[in-house]
């Protein structure tokens, strides 16, 4: 097997395409022949030693992938050789094969492509947990999605629409706004040229959005929160722009609003039954055509450094997927 090996987490340039012995799965594990792996923001942070999870060195990055079960370890009964699966295990995806905990593997129904599956779990699980569980979104409410053309943003648009909400998508270019409209957004804001607060006020008739989905952080957090509706819920999803914003607490008081943390990874560990039920619902929605990952492009696994560079340019719309 071959994989992109990180021996020193100083950045993407330190990764090397390395031949390694193909491992044998232990009890509770499976060997997966990787067909596709998506590139997520944590995959960049982890090779820069900036992510909260710091795997022992050396490691193979690639948190999310899909492929075919090539071998099963002792005690694995719900998966079999030849079965198509998707997995989000945190590391191991950027190679030709990997060992994965069988409990983290999602069996793929017929018709679920490897490319879509590799781009599915993280963004849809995060967005479903955020909007359904944490925000308790109701049909007819208005959702503002910041960073709406990215992976979790596009998933949030689709899930909010599936739940009967009105969606305002905010993104950094007209091209990204057009993408958001094409996947169901009811209105868009180009915050590189529009005043965010004024645009929100106009699009909500002064009421403000009931739910704000923010995977970006940075400079837009405070003006967005100042625009929130009475009893609004501000979802803290991530900080893709880099800076972690500080919000004056009096704003929450004045609007009777909630600042709600979203940490799907911890939710999946602490509440595995609820997470499994959620993933089952998301698989059904995919089969029904309600949700489908937006794929920016696919690239050969050997071109991973170029894929990282494209992601760093902030030009990605949806998800980047590496294929073997």
TrEMBL record:
The name this protein goes by in its record: NADPH2:quinone reductase
Keyword Oxidoreductase (UniProt): yes
Coiled-coil regions listed in the entry: none
CDD domains given in the database record: QOR1 (cd08241)
InterPro entries recorded: ADH-like_C (IPR013149), ADH-like_N (IPR013154), ER (IPR020843), GroES-like_sf (IPR011032), NAD(P)-bd_dom_sf (IPR036291), Quin_OxRdtase/zeta-crystal_CS (IPR002364), Zn-ADH-like_protein (IPR051397)
SMART domains associated with the record: PKS_ER
Cited PANTHER family: QUINONE OXIDOREDUCTASE-LIKE PROTEIN 2 (PTHR43677:SF4), SHORT-CHAIN DEHYDROGENASE/REDUCTASE (PTHR43677)
Domain Enoyl reductase (ER): 11-322
PROSITE patterns (alphabetical): QOR_ZETA_CRYSTAL
Organism of provenance: Acidovorax delafieldii (Pseudomonas delafieldii)
Claim: Lyase is one of the keywords in the record: no
SUPFAM superfamilies on file: GroES-like, NAD(P)-binding Rossmann-fold domains
GO molecular function, one term: zinc ion binding
Matching Pfam families: ADH_N, ADH_zinc_N
EC annotation from Swiss-Prot or TrEMBL: 1.6.5.5
Enzyme class of the recorded protein, top EC level: oxidoreductase
């Amino acid at each position: 097997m071959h994989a992109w090996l990180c021996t020193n987490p100083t950045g993407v340039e330190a990764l090397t395409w390395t031949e390694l012995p193909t491992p044998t799965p232990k009890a509770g594990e499976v060997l997966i022949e990787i067909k596709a792996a998506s590139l997520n923001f944590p995959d960049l942070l982890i090779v820069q030693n900036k992510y909260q999870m710091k795997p022992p060195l050396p490691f193979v990055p690639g948190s999310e992938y899909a492929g075919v079960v090539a071998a099963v370890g002792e005690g694995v009964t719900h998966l079999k050789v030849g079965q198509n699966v998707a997995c989000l295990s945190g590391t191991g995806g950027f190679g030709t094969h990997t060992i994965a905990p069988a409990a983290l593997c999602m069996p793929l129904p017929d018709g679920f492509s490897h490319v879509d599956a590799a781009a599915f779990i993280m963004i849809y699980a995060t967005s479903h947990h955020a909007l359904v569980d944490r925000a308790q979104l109701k049909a007819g409410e208005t959702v503002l999605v910041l960073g709406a053309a990215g992976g979790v943003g596009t998933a949030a648009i689709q899930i909010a629409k599936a739940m009967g909400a009105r969606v305002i998508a905010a993104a950094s270019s007209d091209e990204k706004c057009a993408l958001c409209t094409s996947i169901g957004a009811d209105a868009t804001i180009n915050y590189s040229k529009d005043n965010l607060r004024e645009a929100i006020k106009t699009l909500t008739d002064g009421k403000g959005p009931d739910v704000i989905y923010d995977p970006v952080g940075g400079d837009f957090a405070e003006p967005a929160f100042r625009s929130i509706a009475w009893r609004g819920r501000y979802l803290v999803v991530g900080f893709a722009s880099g800076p972690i914003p500080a919000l004056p607490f009096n704003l929450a008081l004045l609007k009777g609003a909630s600042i709600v943390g979203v940490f799907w990874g911890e939710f999946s560990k602490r509440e595995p039954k609820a997470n499994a039920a959620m993933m089952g619902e998301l698989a059904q929605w995919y089969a029904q055509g309600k949700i489908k990952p937006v794929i920016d492009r696919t690239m050969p696994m050997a071109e991973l450094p170029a894929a990282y560079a494209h992601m760093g340019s902030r030009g990605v719309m949806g998800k980047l997927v590496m294929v073997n």
